[in-house]
Queue: 2 jobs
Job 1
Amino acid sequence: MTILRVDGLGKRFGGLSAVDNVTFSVDEGEIVALVGPNGAGKSTLLKMIGGMHTPSRGTVTVGDTPVGGLKPHRSRRHGVAMVLQTPRPFETMTVEENVMLGALFGGESMAEAEARRRASAMLEFVGLGDRAGDEVGALNLHEQRFCEIARQLAGRPTLILLDEVMAGLNDTELEHSVDLVRRARADFGLTVLWVEHVMKAVMNLAERVLVLNFGQLIADGEPTEVMRQPDVVAAYLGDRRMTA
Ligand SMILES: Nc1ncnc2c1ncn2[C@@H]1O[C@H](COP(=O)(O)OP(=O)(O)O)[C@@H](O)[C@H]1O
Ligand SMILES: [Mg+2]
């Protein structure tokens, strides 16, 4: 069943097209990577799906609900969660309090005790169970991203959008992240659309890859086949941020 449909989506900033007439859909339970060189429009596309940017043209539909142009807290009620490239947690609150907020603002109403229970379950899930009482500011960037993932999961989304959450991780952390996304799908039935620069993670985790270049979707398919396509290889040449 299709959970996300993006149709003719475009975003202009001033005169420049950051995302240009992009069409694709994602099935329930799929793990899909969105890749492309720096500046290709990946974050802009994700933010339109997450309701943080209003599209200049086209539509985004999650389930049966059009979400394009909704405020993030409203998209959240339609089951869409997003982890931004740079998380902005409430630094002086504890890790557990941050994750509790995710449960409380997930769109369901619940008692504080239930939010706390969910928060501790999600912190265990991402491997931060022993950091619950620490201030978020005491976490390193990698841990802050995982705290943010726990915060989003606490609201029980059906579709999660992740923007480069694996950047800068060592091999062990990368394996942990890949495993985490797989478990999130297995345990919570999540659908995952994630922007990724780390090719090892893409090849290990993605079931399908979408490639953006200059705002346009130039490939959509099976990872090994897509990454061999000459126009995809050409798009990546000269991108210094590209990691093996
Ligand atoms: N808020 C904004 N205002 C103006 N230009 C933007 C804004 N956000 C992104 N852009 C431009 O849109 C293009 C795509 O950016 P982005 O979606 O961040 O790319 P990516 O995530 O693939 O690196 C870039 O040229 C960028 O400078
Ligand atoms: Mg980006």
Note: The pocket of adenosine-5'-diphosphate (ligand 1) is lined by residues 13, 18, 36, 38-44 (CB under 6 Å).
Job 2
Amino acid sequence: MNDILFLRDIRGQDHALGMIRRAGASKRMAHAYLFRGPRGVGKRSTAMAFARFLLCREAADADACGQCVSCRKAASGNHPDIQTIVPEGAAIKIEQIRAMQRYLAFPPLEGELRVTIIIRAQSMAAVAANSLLKILEEPPPGNLIILTAEDNAPILPTIISRCQVLGFNNLSQTEVSQILAGEEEFDTTAIALARLSAGSPGLALKSADNGIPQLQERVTVMLIHARQKEPIINEALALAEDCAALKDDLPIFLQGVYAWLVDLAWHASGEGQRGFAADLSAEEMELSRAIKVRGIHQRMEQVKQARTRLRRKCNPRAVCELLLLRLTYPDA
Ligand SMILES: [Zn+2]
């Protein structure tokens, strides 16, 4: 059911993860959490991984060890102190909350803590919600309750007020994850190296020898000029000629441009600490905010297409001309 076993494997939820990992590591958890956010962004996986971490007997680096007896039971879905309540049919029913009330009367079976995860809490009928509210008002010691709910569904304010609410990521961040998931055709090591060499031209990397960082810099300047409504056609054509002259190293240049766009996307989606996004200049950050994740995604597609055309032995200069014009005006 759940492939993700560790908190460290969950992507794109840095705020919520930071909060719960710190809380878990210091044993200062709230007694109830509400994970709220769009559907399918990892609320449930995070709740399960958080439970495994809290019950792990050898936890290190604010995460479960994956090896101890507790982790093994949890991974097989048989840990008696991890209880999951999912909607029966369309809703969580009052009987399910009553059953929860009964086991909460007893201490945890294996250790000092029991974690109950209530999935899609927004589906509770009023009577079940009121029953849960009584539990949340005075939860028996040794229990942590985690609710997950979609953010567009109403939940009793009295329930919300008794939970620490953690927001899960918005659509643009999900979009970025999808973008990154689609980059397998690019060698990620090469991307990192190309990006690194772009940020530090002094590094003794192959791309530094043939002026790739300078070419990437010219791409950046061209896009910024285009935003400022300055004519760029001549610059694009001259740049295309210089790029085409890279010959066999042209794909390295494309990887560098692609990696740069990934960093712009991280910045545009509010995850500026990822990748090399923190190394972007003020002008690049402004550019990324102006063209937004969608515009950046369009440009990433253009880079992929250029790469495909090169593989098909299209004329490199024509490929570069088209790419540079499309990078500047993707809707043209
Ligand atoms: Zn463990």
Note: The mean pLDDT is 84.
